[in-house]
């Protein structure tokens, strides 16, 4: 829409508003006896609901969008040799210290997020994409169209509908406009593009009330012609002075600094970096001073309404926040948008720093921004460490099993004793990986993954030593230490999830803000590790607890049921683990373990009943979360079921089971190798056990030893665990690998300790 058409439409709307107000004032005067004789007055209504009084009284809301700017990049630019770039970065830094800075989760769909994807996600309120150019073998960003976004949304499974935010603003009677291609893309609907303007400053400085309620500005669109982007050419001259941060970042920070200088005091400003396709990491965002979160704040940083983490919000939280800022929170709540809502102040942003402010002020605001930069570096390091630490954990478990197999061929007490303690150390590795986050390993730069692995190994060694010290004071020695270490992994992982996952989030093997699949609770990896060790620990612990007990079945039921139900509550409760797949898996696995220890066999009908109970428990968790409005993973899924969108989510998760192996040759090769190892190991074990039972082979001596009563039920419970978790979790077969990496060393540690310690 051209500027004259936009101005004419605004003039007609203003004239209509004045007419309605005149009729209302005349009616009021007549009713009070101060005007003409009272008469019935019919006020015309529209189908769109009126915005709330608070929203109507608020100043315009403007979003300044860039790309490729994180807090660490801003720090680099502030130290650039070019004085213009350094001054612009310092200006943005100082502005952030006076307002509400946060890290922004910019990931949309896939590993690469292009600017068009970020703007489309902002306009839909859910993860979406519009740029199809990065879907090939080479990740590039060439722009996107509304038609591409509509086509891609049909197969992505996130329920994105391009134009959602604009449609909700129209329904609420709020006005909006766009400056720049990305902003136009975000606000385009099926009826066409939004009102556009060549200058944001002209719209926001209008004195006749024609300023839009919401204005989106794409500062990276140098063809928009706005005053905020007129320095793009000048920024290009400084590209060579900011090579570390990149030329685009230098242009972005100069455009942003000028936009802040021109628009501060004229509107409520929201600064957001919508994407970073070159170096995926949390991006910077600056909300107006006085913004509040329903989850409060921590050390002056807002806690994200959907991430539950300090200073971290999602890009999908901005659409409902902007809608609430211009049309009221009731309108945003009723909109159906699934993101969290941050409450913006009604007054214009006035926190622009003084030109005489020092380049790096030693203030609480500067400390907050520095903490955000450290958090972003933590997330990037976590993403880089996942594969090396995973390979280290799986490699340690595999090496242990090979060593145990070789050691049992020619058993000697001292050799088996060393193998037993090695098994205890590998058993403690998952807990050590979680505890590694207590040390700032992510600050080691390029060596961060190696430092994370070494820290995890050292933490596991400390746990093993701590378990061995009290065990050496009595006989038998090793079984108590092995059982304690078998339990420490589930206790650490589930206990961490119960308090918000401060160790699991951005950890060496946990969820992180770059992948952005989950931010709190129990992740798929965490569940597989905890549940694998839990089944073995409960089996051995329950048998030991019930030994010699007069009411053996009652003792077994209590020994399995009490800790098992506690683990289920932590894993599945909405405000704790919020794990749908884990809760569905844990119930049948616990039933298999308890009935196996008690000597009870379940038929098909009873197993169907167990499945119904599992679904019912998860459904109760989800409905409770939905009813309270907290909308964790469970409540969000309940909302999708009630809204009819659960089918797309289930289809997307089912596709995720096979997608990595279809798109990544290394992942497919790893799968083939893992399946080959599992099949080969199973064949070898079956052949070896048969020979041992027949009194042949090097392992025949093991057949003469008594088998622990808990071993069979533990193996059956593990079989149920891995089958169900692979079927109901979108991580698929990787769940089996992690559960095996936790359960196999635990079994080896317990069995070796029982054979060696009596001497």
Automatic annotation (TrEMBL):
Transmembrane segments: 385-407, 419-440, 446-469, 481-505, 525-547, 554-574, 580-600, 607-624, 667-686, 698-724, 736-754
Keyword terms of this UniProt record: Membrane, Transmembrane, Transmembrane helix
InterPro entries, A to Z: TAT_signal
Annotated PROSITE patterns: TAT
Name of this chain's protein: Uncharacterized protein
């Amino acid at each position: 829409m051209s500027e004259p058409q936009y101005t004419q439409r605004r003039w007609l709307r203003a004239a209509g508003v004045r007419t309605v107000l005149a009729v209302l004032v005349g009616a009021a005067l007549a009713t009070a006896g101060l005007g003409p004789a009272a008469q019935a007055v019919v006020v015309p209504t529209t189908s769109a609901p009126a915005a709330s009084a608070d929203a109507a009284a608020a100043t315009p809301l403007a979003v300044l969008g860039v790309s490729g700017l994180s807090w660490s990049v801003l720090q680099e630019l502030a130290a650039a040799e070019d004085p213009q770039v350094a001054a612009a970065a310092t200006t943005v830094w100082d502005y952030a210290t006076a307002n509400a800075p946060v890290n922004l989760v910019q990931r949309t769909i896939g590993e690469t997020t292009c600017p068009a994807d970020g703007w489309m996600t902002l306009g839909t309120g859910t993860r979406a994409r519009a740029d199809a150019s990065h879907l090939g073998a080479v990740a590039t960003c060439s722009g996107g169209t509304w038609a591409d976004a509509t086509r891609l949304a049909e197969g992505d499974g996130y329920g994105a509908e391009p134009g959602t935010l604009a449609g909700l603003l129209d329904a609420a009677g709020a006005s909006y406009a766009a400056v720049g291609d990305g902003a136009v893309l975000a606000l385009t609907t099926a009826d066409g593009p939004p009102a556009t303007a060549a200058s944001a400053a002209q719209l926001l400085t209008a004195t006749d009330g024609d300023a839009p309620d919401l204005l989106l500005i794409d500062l990276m669109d140098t063809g928009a012609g706005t005053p905020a982007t007129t320095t793009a050419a000048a920024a290009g001259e400084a590209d060579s002075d900011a090579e570390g941060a990149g030329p685009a970042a230098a242009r972005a920070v100069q455009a942003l600094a000028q936009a802040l200088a021109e628009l501060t005091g004229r509107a409520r400003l929201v600064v957001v970096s919508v994407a970073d396709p070159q170096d995926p990491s949390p991006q910077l965002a600056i909300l107006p001073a006085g913004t509040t979160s329903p989850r409060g704040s921590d050390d002056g940083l807002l806690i994200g309404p959907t991430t539950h983490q300090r200073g971290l919000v999602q890009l999908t939280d901005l659409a409902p926040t902007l809608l609430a800022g211009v049309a009221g929170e009731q309108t945003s709540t009723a909109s159906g948008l699934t993101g969290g809502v941050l409450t913006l102040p009604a007054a214009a942003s006035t926190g622009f720093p003084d030109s005489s402010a020092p380049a790096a002020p030693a203030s609480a605001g500067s400390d907050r921004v520095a903490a955000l930069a450290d958090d972003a570096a933590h997330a990037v390091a976590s993403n880089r460490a996942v594969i090396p630490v995973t390979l280290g954990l799986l490699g340690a478990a595999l090496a242990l099993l090979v060593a145990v197999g070789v050691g049992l061929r020619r058993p000697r007490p001292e050799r088996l004793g060393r193998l037993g303690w090695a098994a205890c150390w590998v058993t403690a590795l998952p807990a050590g990986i979680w505890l590694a986050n207590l040390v700032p390993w992510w600050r080691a730069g390029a060596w961060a993954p190696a430092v994370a692995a070494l820290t995890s190994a050292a933490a596991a060694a400390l746990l093993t030593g701590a378990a061995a010290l009290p065990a050496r004071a009595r006989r038998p020695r090793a079984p108590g230490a092995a059982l304690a270490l078998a339990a420490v992994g589930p206790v650490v992982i589930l206990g961490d999830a119960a308090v918000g996952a401060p160790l699991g989030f951005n950890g060496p093997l946990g969820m992180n803000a770059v992948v952005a699949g989950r931010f709190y609770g129990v992740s798929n990896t965490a569940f597989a590790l905890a549940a694998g060790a839990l089944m073995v620990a409960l089996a051995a612990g329950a048998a030991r607890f019930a030994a010699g007990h007069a009411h053996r079945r009652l003792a077994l039921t209590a020994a399995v049921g009490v800790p098992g139900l506690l683990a289920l509550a932590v894993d599945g409760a909405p405000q704790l683990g919020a794990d749908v797949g884990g809760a569905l898996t844990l119930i049948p696995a616990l039933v298999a373990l308890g009935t196996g220890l008690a000597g009870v066999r379940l038929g098909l009908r009873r197993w169907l009943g167990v499945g119904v109970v599992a679904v019912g428990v998860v459904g109760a968790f989800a409905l409770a979360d939905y009813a309270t409005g907290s909308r964790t993973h469970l409540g969000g899924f309940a909302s999708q079921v009630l809204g009819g969108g659960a089918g797309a989510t289930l289809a997307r998760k089912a596709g995720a089971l096979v997608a990595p192996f279809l798109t990544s040759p290394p992942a497919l090769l790893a799968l083939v190798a893992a399946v080959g190892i599992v099949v080969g190991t199973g064949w070898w074990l079956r052949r070896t056990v048969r020979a041992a039972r027949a009194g042949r082979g090097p392992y025949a001596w093991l057949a003469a030893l008594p088998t622990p009563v808990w071993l069979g039920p533990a193996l059956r419970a593990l079989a149920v665990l891995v089958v169900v978790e692979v079927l109901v979790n979108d991580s698929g077969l990787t769940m089996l690998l992690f559960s095996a990496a936790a359960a196999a060393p635990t079994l080896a540690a317990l069995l070796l300790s029982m054979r060696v310690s009596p001497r």
